Amino acid sequence: MKSLTWILYTVGLVLCAADPDRATRPNFVLMMVDDLGIGDLGCYGNTTLRTPHIDRLAQEGVKLTHHIAAAPLCTPSRAAFLTGRYPIRSGMAGHGRLGVYLFSASSGGLPLEEITLARVAKEQGYATAIIGKWHLGLNCENSADHCHHPASHGFDHFYGTIMTNLRDCQPGHGTIFNRVHDHIPYKYINIGLVSLALLHFRGVITVPRKVVFGFLALIGMLIILFELMVYTFPNFNCFLMRGAEIVEQPFISENLTQRMTHEAIEFMERNSERPFLLFFSFIQVHTALFAASRFRGKSQHGLYGDAVMEVDWSVGQIMQTLERLKLKENTLAYMTSDQGPHLEEISIHGEVHRGHSGIYRAGKSTNWEGGIRVPGILHWPGVLPAGKVIDEPTSNMDIFPTVVNLAGGSVPSDRHIDGHDLLPLLQGQVKRSEHEFLFHYCNANLNAVRWHPSNSSAVWKALFFTPNFYPENSSACFNTHLCFCIEPFITYHDPPLLFELSSDPSESTPLTPETEPKFYSVLEAIKGAVSHHTQSLKPVQMQFSRGNLIWKPWLQPCCSSLSQLCSCERDHQTGMPNHDFQKE
Ligand SMILES: *[C@@H]1O[C@H](CO)[C@@H](O)[C@H](O)[C@H]1NC(C)=O
Questions:
Q1: What's the confidence (pLDDT) of residue 180?
Q2: Cis omega before residue 553 (within 30°)?
Q3: Residue spans of alpha helices (H) in 43-130
Q4: What angle do CA 319, 323, 325 make, to 5 degrees?
Q5: Domain check: are 373 and 493 in the same one?
Q6: pLDDT tens digits, residue range 370-392?
Q7: I need a surface site. Which of 324, 380, 556, 566 has the fewest CB within 10 A?
Q8: Residues 453, 367 share a domain
Q9: 532 carries an active-site annotation
Q10: Which atom of ligand 1 is nearest to the CA of 358?
């Protein structure tokens, strides 16, 4: 028996020695910024906004220039990132207009059957944490079942917001529901009422008084309910949790990134002796914009630029901590954005609060390149080459299998995984990305397909529909604040709009059968891939059904009594870090 143990032990040692990556089992620091544009970073060509720490990450690591978010919106993109699967496979894609959660008391969210990279890492003995934005649901049945909470998805530690930052989360930034106001058909209600009154007094019809009062009361009630919703929105939806507890409701944005950075540093210090996975999911640079006082007014690009500088500072703090803990050589760091910049963001004071998509067309909520082409930097000194640039198409879904394999887990075989392990490409063992086709959804609608044929350097992209931009000549959906991907907000194209991205990365000139001899054969190949892909989809519960999107009062998390409007500030004592941040 003893000798058997010895044999096993020796075999184990030999296996480990033969596979150095497995033996090292790196830590993971995954950093995702919200709504950051690829054109906002120095290392992606910005010359006027300073991002030295992120640039350094790129200099010392690998920079992906063709890195694609799995969706142009927060919730689905993050679901795909954590699971390595197209959001449609987990039901995290809607059929209606709305593609993200707006209420913390909605019942939809990332289903428990999904396997996240955190869950796999945790099973492999990693300490796991998410700090920052979640946006993948909270409760199912009651206000504390936490069925979709990060803790149910493999994160031991959580400090952050269940929802996203929104204009409504901060006083003085207006409300996203202005648009809803615009959509309440006051005009028609008035016309209806006036005509009814005229007909009544002319004696054409007789409307009983009760009906008139009932009708007016109903409209009044609806308006009051709506205003009440806007009024309570920050308290109900903008709160900070530590673990399962609400610690600040509504959250205070002052020093929020500083506090989160502090929390991240503490997590790494606490776990420096064991493998850890940290998902730092920045609340910035989504509106309502904020920046700590030491960054305000420091950039040439208003509050938006200041916020980007603060993110960059935070990345620097994280990397310096790894260095101080002597973990830099043993940590795979990744930096990205969940999607392109939100081009429609102009503050209520008229200040530009949007990022920059560089040479790419349009932005967030579209599948033009500007909506999904995101920064992608991977850093692991000694294992990944320094200063390497890779132009092959890659996806944010690739992080899942990459992390799973490095952590010593196995990629689930009972389901379709759409990402591919990036390590061979990053290390130069292979030259080509395994993504021959990438499918681009807008909510649950297949919007576009990218094809990188295995024998060519071309990257074809066919768009089946595109958003209608208003006003003309704009490349943003100012009227609706986001581009929607259903009629009447889109235009279908048959044949699809076709581009070849390696020669036309800005998607400026659609190809035609006259300008492109391969026009029909390319579309034919794409059609075949679509039918193959569509067959691989299994029916799942839709997490964006109406029932899963609406506000359900019994799911409302609340840290105090309702009469106090669910407000509290338990985080106050630990709120401001007394931690000395390292000098740059
Ligand atoms: C740099 O980023 C800012 C903020 O998004 C943008 O306004 C500016 O145009 C960018 N500059 C360049 C040279 O890309």
A1: 64
A2: no
A3: 52-60, 74-83, 87-90, 117-123
A4: 115
A5: yes
A6: 999 999 999 999 999 999 999 99
A7: 324
A8: yes
A9: no
A10: 14
Is 43 noted as a catalytic residue in this protein? no
DSSP strand pairing (240-242 vs 245-248): antiparallel
Atom 6 (ligand 1): residue with closest C-alpha?
356
| Boundary residue ending a domain (215, 231, 247) | 231
Q: Residue 247 in contact with residue 240, Cβ under 8 Å?
A: yes
Lookup result for tokens 């610690």 = 247
- 362 and 413 belong to one structural domain: yes
Model pLDDT, residue 176: 83
The CATH number of the domain holding residue 307 is 3.40.720.10
- Protein residues with CB under 6 Å of any ligand 1 atom: 37, 39-40, 46-49, 301, 304-305, 355-356
Report the relative pairing of strands 460-467 and 240-242 from DSSP bridges.
unpaired
Residues 409, 521 share a domain: yes
Between the CA of 358 and the centroid of ligand 1 the distance, in Å, is 8
Work out how many domains the chain is built from and give that number.
2
From 36, 43, 301, the mutation candidate for ligand 1 (largest count of ligand atoms within 8 A of CB) is 301
Marked catalytic residue, from 66, 135, 157, 356: 135
Residue 454 lies in a domain: yes
**Amino acid at site 461:** K
Q: What is the extent of the structural domain holding 94?
A: 25-166+238-569
- What residues of the chain score a pLDDT lower than 50? 1-2, 10-23, 573-575, 578-579, 584
Ligand 1: atom nearest CA of 304 is 4
Q: How many CB atoms lie within 10 A of CB 245?
A: 11
Residue type, 257: T
Q: Does residue 440 fall inside a structural domain? A: yes
495 cis-preceded (ω within 30 degrees of 0): yes
Distance, in Å, from the CA atom of 230 to the CA atom of 338, rounded to the nearest integer, reads 27
Same domain, residue pair 220 and 147: no
**Ligand 1 atom with minimal separation from the 354 CA:** 5
- What 3-state class would DSSP assign to 96? coil
Residues 226 and 314 in one domain: no
Give pLDDT tens digits for 402-441.
Answer: 999 999 999 999 999 999 999 999 999 999 999 999 999 9
Question: Is there a single domain that holds both residue 182 and residue 83?
Answer: no
pLDDT of residue 229: 83
Of the three residues 231, 248, 266, the one that is the final residue of a domain is: 231
0.85 surpassed by pTM: yes
- Options 53, 66, 74, 558, the catalytic residue: 74
